[in-house]
Specification:
The chain has seven helices and ten strands. With 260 residues, the protein is α/β, with parallel strands linked by helices.
């Protein structure tokens, strides 16, 4: 049994993986986590699992928030007696080529998604991730990571709209209740702008990527993916655990195929 953790700017996804299966998973809020906070957070997710944490044989971590990574790595080493793999660290094999100008600048979550997508499908892909940023990443016909697009995330845009406006209310992300584009009140107008605006953004980006790079299967991940994928027909599948699946593959690649 090993631990997979993806540290994002807003949320942390964590899972225990055994025999190629995610046995239990959960999310934590990303904050200024020190070792005790990490310990409490992981215990809140996994304390009910048999063998936690004594049965852990390893861990793998992907992070785009260096400020909280070191405390986690220290905890895994000192309290759980495992030497964690860190995606992007020297010597950690990814199993795919990162074909961009500065590979070290690529977000580890984007690379891990590419690994998972290629393992699932083995064909050219566009991976749309509805996270803190909204990203579209391209996997080539040879399985290489080709780069992609980074746009402000949906919740970031919504927060900027609220913070920068004196009279607009704070709302959640949801399709307009009317199902129409033209809002008949302020809340519906805001929901329409955010929701249909991002539908148009994704459709436009995918069309331009197809024109530039050729046909590719389009899949989605991220917390808000289910809210949008049904309204974007070109998205063929949504995978809640895509990043964790990619971490599991990289872990096994670097541990000689061991998965428990």
């Amino acid at each position: 049994m090993f631990l997979a953790i993806d540290i994002g700017n807003t949320n942390i996804a964590a899972a225990l993986i055994e025999n190629d299966c995610i046995s239990v998973s959960g999310r934590l809020e990303t904050g200024r986590l020190d070792e005790p906070a990490w310990q409490n957070g992981l215990d809140s997710l996994f304390a009910g699992q048999p063998g936690w944490p004594q049965a852990l044989e390893g861990a793998i971590v992907s992070s785009v928030v260096p400020a909280v990574t070191d405390a986690l790595l220290s905890l895994l080493r000192s309290q759980m007696n495992v030497e964690p793999l860190l995606v992007g660290a020297p010597g950690v094999e990814l199993g795919i080529k990162v074909d961009i100008e500065r590979p070290e600048e690529a977000g580890s979550d984007r690379i891990v998604n590419a690994v998972a997508g290629w393992q699932r499908y083995g064909e050219p892909l566009i991976i749309v991730d509805f996270g803190t940023a909204t990203t579209c990443d391209v996997v080539g016909a040879d399985g290489s990571y080709q780069g992609g697009v980074i746009a402000p995330g949906i919740n970031l845009s919504l927060k900027a709209l609220y913070d920068g406006s004196a009279r607009l209310p704070e709302i959640d992300v949801a399709p307009p209740e009317s199902g129409k584009v033209i809002g008949k009140n302020t809340v519906e107008a805001m929901r329409s702008g955010i929701y249909w605006g991002y539908v148009g953004l994704i459709e436009g980006l995918i069309a331009r990527i197809h024109a530039e790079a050729g046909p590719a299967k389009v899949i989605a991940t991220g917390g808000l993916a289910p809210l949008f994928s049904d309204r974007i027909p070109i998205i063929e599948a949504t995978h809640e655990y895509l990043t964790l699946e990619g971490l599991a593959h990289i872990y096994k690649l670097n541990t000689g195929g061991a998965d428990n």
